[in-house]
């Protein structure tokens, strides 16, 4: 069906409308006549003509191009609303016209409105089940010559209408569309080339799209209702993450927050990851192929929901979060606190979020690790959470290195120390060693080695106390918890002074790390010589 685009040769608006009328008449006759090959050719010519008009109007290379585009688009809509147009014609045109009409959406607000009307007309006259894959395909293949933020708006609104119009298999069909919408919105929202008004229009359509799914949920029986509510929850979390990329969209975040309780989501369940895992199991089950279609933004959105609540009381109220109870529970429960720290890595590691979000996230982390949390550890084992804790701590080191805000760097370092202190002694050294070996920053390695030296000093004091206090010494478990004084320390020093790449460390690039390693080695030797190790 590919053909050369029909050029606009500078003829008058009347001639262009005449050309449109001729192309529409040709399409109608060939489709009604049952000539498949001829109808394909006619539709292809019509689409190429429309693409030429939309390209010219967006680039504004010709005088009056925008006015011409509005007239052409209006002519298409009038044709589709004609009582004499049969269903066969509408069905044939439904495969290509929604995409072409959406390309006009960025020309002007008036063209956006007509584009909406054209797609709505197709949804009225065609099967919603047929329109869903057509709209998804159009969403998944935006043309580089169009303004993507406005191009997708009529298509997303069309999906909202389709969702509400579906008669059966709602969950299965909406489940196909959601990843497509998230993918395209993610691509657009992370671009910096769009005006605020364009993104606001896009997010308005997305929020309405989520609300349309909520409307469908209310009409369904228990089984399918539970699945669709879980899917809605995952969708809202992903959109919340994308909305958060821009700091000015509190009003959208509040509307999304109001949907969270409907999906059975709690604030504590979000920050620990429990709610996300539960919803994912309901929606995806054991299907790994389905799992790959859902974005990692789900976990980012879950973490950000609590950060939004930290920033704005009205968000906590809209989401029905008892924020005080959440923070108290995390302070008192080491396991849930470790889970929360692991979830926060998604915020710390995001390259798209404004630094403001990371600042509030660090503040939240400082709050839940405040007080003497080490006394609440008991004999808990955090082995299950070592990977996520390491990732969060590694992301925190990036904030310490790269944040321009001095206060944020200072608070991030304090949070790093508190999280390390929250990890049982038996696993703390392993985490520190992994952070040192996986850091490319000489300054950060030096800071971490200093923390190791501090841990060794603390253990030395503890051992001295044990020797003086027979009651404590009898507690063998306490004795076993002092694990930093071992040959592993010398191996750690050697890894800095004799890197795996071979040869000595490169100076002066690694001077901070080398100096800190030598200081640590000197501390060990002096302590051993004094007989205090």
UniProtKB/TrEMBL annotation:
Organism: Gossypium raimondii (Peruvian cotton)
Lineage of source species: Eukaryota, Viridiplantae, Streptophyta, Embryophyta, Tracheophyta
GO cellular component: cytoplasm
GO molecular function per UniProt: ubiquitin-protein transferase inhibitor activity
Classification via InterPro entries: ARM-type_fold, Glomulin/ALF4, YAP-bd/ALF4/Glomulin
Top-level taxonomic group: Eukaryota
A Pfam family the protein falls into: Kinetochor_Ybp2
Record-given protein name: Aberrant root formation protein 4
